[in-house]
Structures are given as C-alpha cells and as structure tokens.
Amino acid sequence: MNHTPVSTVSIVLTTLGADADAAAIARTLIDERLAACVNILPPMASVYRWQGKVEQDREQQIVIKTAQDRVRALQARLRELHPYELPEFLVLDATASEAYFAWVEESAK
Questions:
Q1: Domain assignment present for 42
Q2: CATH number at residue 85
Q3: CB atoms within 10 A of CB 43
Q4: Which residues, at least 6 apart from 30, have a Cβ–Cβ distance to it below 8 Å?
Q5: 53 to each of 15, 56, 106, 109, how far by Cα in Å?
Q6: Average pLDDT, the chain
Q7: Counting beta carbons within 10 angstroms of the beta carbon of residue 7, is it exposed (0 to 12), middle (13 to 18) or buried (19 or more)?
Q8: Burial of 97 per CB tally in 10 Å (0-12, 13-18, 19+)
Q9: Among candidates 97, 10, 11, 8, which has minimal Cα distance to 61?
Q10: Number of Cβ within a 10 Å radius of residue 83
Q11: pLDDT digits (tens, 9 = 90+) for 36-53
Q12: Is the pLDDT score of 69 beyond 90?
C-alpha cells in the first residue's frame, strides 16, 4: 500500500471583463491570504448563453491557486469583489509536489 500523503491544492477559475482591473482583485486575494498565487491570462473571446441569448464578450481568465480549506472563504470574498451578477467559480483539485503544496498552505493561511 502507498501511504504517501496527498498534497492537494485547489485551482479556482473565474473570468472578468477584458477591461476589469483583474490585478486589483488578485492583489486583494493575495493580501487577504485567500490565495497563494493568481494568474491573469490575456484577454480572449468568450461565447456563452446568458438569459436566453447567445453572447460574445472579451474576458480575462483568472487562475487562482489556494489551499483547499480556503475555498469557501475565497468564494465569499470573490463574490463581493466580482462585478458579474453570476461569476464563474470552478474549483479543480490538483496534486502538487510536496514543496509547492507547503508553499500554498503557508501562503493562504
């Protein structure tokens, strides 16, 4: 049997409008220790259905790395900061190296 401890971090995805100040939101999440790292990807085209209509907008993908036990608090705070009526909030759990896991845990507590 493998008794290696599982080093799982959470990756949270959200999008913001292309003109939104994603860096300000990222800095808030880091300053409040809700995330260890936030990546802001370049603007992209998003096509989606909203309120019965197909929409197309320019958005930025935000990738947030955090500790699993910070996800709920991160979701609540992001809801306060996010300009969208229904912000994307997708949580992916990923196995990390022990060193990266330790850094995320230390950075987001």
A1: yes
A2: 3.30.70.120
A3: 16
A4: 36, 37, 38, 107
A5: 19, 10, 44, 41
A6: 94
A7: middle
A8: exposed
A9: 11
A10: 10
A11: 999 999 999 999 999 999
A12: yes
Q: Is 58 left (phi over 0), alpha (psi -120 to 50) or beta?
A: beta
Encode pLDDT of 92-105 as tens digits.
999 999 999 999 99
Q: Considering the entire predicted model, what is its pTM?
A: 0.92
Domain range for 64: 8-107
Q: Which residues contact 103 (CB under 8 A, 6 or more apart)?
A: 36
Q: Is 84 helix (H, G, I), strand (E, B) or coil?
A: coil
- Going 66 to 9 to 41 to 61, the CA torsion angle's sign is negative
Amino acid at the residue 35:
A
- Tokens representing 71 are 């996800």
Judge whether 38 lies within some domain.
yes
Domains of the chain: total = 1
